[in-house]
Write a structure and sequence with these properties.
There is one protein chain. By secondary structure, the protein is of the alpha/beta class. It folds into three domains: 2-146, Response regulator (Rossmann fold, 3-Layer(aba) Sandwich), CATH 3.40.50.2300; 162-307, P-loop containing nucleotide triphosphate hydrolases (Rossmann fold, 3-Layer(aba) Sandwich); 310-462, Helicase, Ruva Protein, domain 3. Helix content is 45%, strand content 14%. The chain has 20 helices and 16 strands. The strands form five sheets. A five-stranded parallel sheet has the order 2-1-3-4-5, with helices on both faces. A five-stranded parallel sheet has the order 7-10-13-6-14. The protein has a two-stranded antiparallel sheet with strand order 8-9. Strand 8 (213-214) and strand 9 form a beta hairpin. Helix 4 (85-93) packs parallel to helix 7 (146-159), helix 14 crosses helix 16 (354-368) and helix 18 crosses helix 20 (454-462). The longest helix is centred in the last third of the chain and has 20 residues, at 419-438. It is globular and about 75 Å long. The N and C termini lie far apart (61 Å). The chain binds adenosine-5'-triphosphate and magnesium ion (MG).
């Protein structure tokens, strides 16, 4: 029989954990005191340790670390009453075998324990622990759907390694947020995090931006972003837009930790962790020959796919509450909450702009709100009638004219001073969002539909 030690201060909760494990297969002992459990490891080794996360602030992670000091190969499963991204990240970074939301009991725990005991189990997920240092303030990564919990765990697992990571997800799904979380949970956290949006630059400018170059008329070498990121992490957003020569240099950094300066023979050595992101399928681009297959495999040592918000709707209410708190403090405005009607509408909305669109909608709603509770009228995306912009389909010249006049009067009444900018960018934004909906969230198609570049489209989706 396999020995499972369960650490839990609360008897009732411990009983629940015990009952999740079939009696015929496991011998369970319950510990209520972390120090005693650690001391007992001197004499006896269980096969698995289960730690209830809610011991105290950080208590579970400390205990986990202490167990791992005794025996790195001893699998530890952390059970969390309330899951938090930071709890999942830290547990996995410190070498937990698994991190389970309490809601997945009983089968979740039995599964995890069984997997941990399989021949290659306990070791697989173990990763080195980081050195001391301050963990920088992180933007929380909100999400409780199984998909998001998996992502939190992956962040923790990869944070302690130097492996390249490829993050894939539609616009606004949180790719940069996750890249930052990887960096700030890694040993490189006190070194630079350098983010480069490859898509925002002309291909040749990107080469110099990343790898350095000479200013026109000057003979002095200006180091690029890779050199700036030395010992830290570089985040290559929209890596799919990089030209083939730039891809070649990125590959060389990944393979040998060095690159050749553009237009020169000198080689530059760098120690940089690469995290890349793309909103497009690289598979299609590899078929077209515009993305190097060898670079793809080098980048995706760890691959994180963030599902679009419409595919993890259970996260919407939590995100909405989180953004409400942020908006309140940002705008210094008191709002008590979100009405049920709004929650229902938020749950059904397609969110072509994903989490960013939700964040922006809540911020605007808080700004507009007068009643103390967010109501559908506070949301432009749900508003109909007088104040709203007509649907693109109804955008006859007269409809547009009256919408513009109405908005003009409204803004003029409020004494706004940048009316032209406000209305034009609003029209552009509506067009961009409408095109995104029409194109099923595909930016390339939406941009083509509007006859604008993808970068312009993204800029317009972001504005507001
Ligand atoms: N799970 C989440 N929890 C909290 N905030 C989130 C989450 N996901 C995204 N956000 C917020 O949404 C906004 C967009 O996220 P981010 O910039 O990381 O997206 P992105 O995938 O890089 O988008 P793009 O492809 O357009 O660059 C940010 O303000 C980010 O903080
Ligand atoms: Mg981004």
């Amino acid at each position: 029989m396999k020995d499972v030690w369960i650490l839990d201060r609360n008897a009732e909760s411990a009983a629940e954990l015990t009952e999740a494990l079939p009696r015929l297969m496991y011998e369970t002992s319950v510990w209520t005191d972390a120090d005693r459990l650690i001391a007992a490891l001197d004499e006896k080794r269980p096969d698995v340790v289960v730690i209830e996360h809610c011991l105290s602030e950080g208590g579970a992670v400390d205990t986990l670390r202490a167990v791992k000091e005794f025996d790195r190969r001893l699998p530890v499963v952390v059970v969390a009453a309330t899951t938090s991204s930071q709890g999942a990240i830290e547990s996995m970074r410190e070498g937990a075998y698994d991190y389970l939301p309490r809601g997945t009991l009983p089968s979740g725990l039995e599964d995890a324990v069984r997997r941990a005991l399989s021949p290659d189990g306990g070791m697989i997920r173990t990763i080195g622990s980081p050195g001391p240092g301050d963990v920088a303030e992180l933007g929380a990564i909100v999400g409780r759907t199984p998909e998001m919990v998996e992502i939190h765990k992956l962040i923790g697992q990869t944070a302690a390694t130097d492996a390249a990571v490829l993050i894939q997800g539609e616009s606004g799904t949180g790719k940069e947020l996750i890249a930052r979380a990887i960096h700030y949970n890694s040993d490189r956290r006190n070194r630079p995090f350098v983010a480069v949006n490859c898509g925002a630059m002309h291909p040749e400018a990107l080469d110099a931006e990343l790898f350095g170059g000479r200013r026109p008329g000057s003979s002095e070498w200006e180091p690029g972003r890779f050199e700036q990121a030395n010992e830290g992490t570089i985040f290559l957003d929209e890596v799919d837009t990089a030209s083939l020569p730039v891809q070649g240099r990125i590959l060389s950094v990944l393979e040998n930790g060095q690159f050749e300066r553009p237009g020169a023979r000198t080689r530059v050595k760098v120690n940089v962790r690469v995290v890349a992101a793309t909103g497009r399928s690289l598979v299609a681009q590899m078929k077209e020959g515009t993305f190097r297959v060898d670079l793809f495999y080098r980048l995706k040592v760890v691959s994180i796919f963030i599902p679009p918000l419409r595919d993890r709707r259970d996260d919407i209410p939590y995100l909405a509450e989180y953004f409400l708190e942020r908006a309140k403090s940002k705008l210094q405005k008191d709002v008590d909450g979100i009405s049920q009607q709004v929650f229902d509408l938020l749950a059904d909305y397609p969110w072509p702009g994903n989490v960013r669109e939700l964040e922006r909608s809540i911020l605007r709603a808080v700004a507009l709100n007068r009643t103390g509770v967010l109501v559908p009228e506070d949301f432009e995306i749900f508003r109909e009638g007088a104040e709203s912009w007509p649907d693109a389909a109804e955008l006859s010249p007269e409809g547009l004219e009256s919408a513009v006049s109405r908005s003009f009067r409204r803004l003029a009444d409020r004494d706004e001073d940048r009316i032209d900018d406000a209305i034009v960018s609003e029209v552009e934004r509506v067009l961009a969002e409408e095109a995104m909906r029409h194109a099923g969230g595909n930016q390339v198609r939406a941009a083509r539909l509007l006859g604008i570049s993808r970068n312009t489209l993204r800029k317009r989706l972001r504005e507001g």
